[in-house]
């Protein structure tokens, strides 16, 4: 396995984190198996995942984590029945606790010649769940096979906790995040970290020079404020953010505040951002629990954008809005009313690996 690189940072060697819309070599996914993530509703979940693999396997490789040989046989059968392109699926027999690859998978960086390397951040179960040690070992385990250059990000002598869902980048030097996730004392990832600490870390490991701080995430978000349910770059100069029209809803005021902040924010070159909006679906509940249903949790793959839908009238509005924002890509709605009981949907479960091209 390549040596873990901590003597020099990715930025010092010319690496940066590309935008999600840049060409992908593959998408990382972890096959669902933890029954308690979908209590009382697990039966449809593998089939929902298979639909995601079906779409992605038509346009890029899928790196799929499964528990063991028996699981691989079972998953192959499901994928075949659903019409996935199995020739584009690579199976990794790596045990996971939950397998939300956005947060426990490799966050990739790339240099100008095209080398793609991994950053392996410390994963601590969103500073909430004790059963996270298998997930925390995923990147190291996968890299025993792939042998990429790999960094374990450090700051002030300690490994840094970071989840991919807490950040979004435009690939040109600007990063979006939220105060609720990274600066709050609730589910605190890196005790004592300031904005300045994060700015230094993001510059060193992602090549980011401009950090934009939004306030709070959406209601029902178990991660305490991940930005990928809230606001996303869709090109280097444009952010799309969710808004709530019902003034009595818990999301109404926080989302208005974030919209106002975005309208006054600038990119890495000092230019105002273009800001577009997505609606929110009507609140989704299961067994009395509000779930983090959001159209912002879409995933940009090669030639396609997969978008969560919730059997809601605003599904059509969200799909049309994203079709206008991604004119060169197919927009595919994926039914997520069952998936969201796991407290995440499409972006949460995926992690892109850029193409070396």
Distance between the termini: 23 Å
The number of distinct helices, counting runs of at least 4 residues, comes to 10
- Computed CA radius of gyration, to the nearest angstrom: 19 Å
Q: Can you write the helix and strand succession as a string?
A: EHEHEHEEHHEEEEEHHEEEHEEEEEHEHE
> Main sheet?
4 strands, mixed
Q: Helical content, roughly?
A: 10-25%
Mean pLDDT: 97
Lateral arrangement of strands in the main beta sheet: 3-2-1-20
- Count of DSSP E strands? 20
Proportion of residues in extended strands: 15-25%
User: Which stretches are low in confidence, meaning pLDDT under 50 for 5 or more residues running?
Assistant: none
How does the overall form come out from the CA principal axes? globular
SS class: alpha/beta
Quaternary structure state of the chains depicted:
single chain
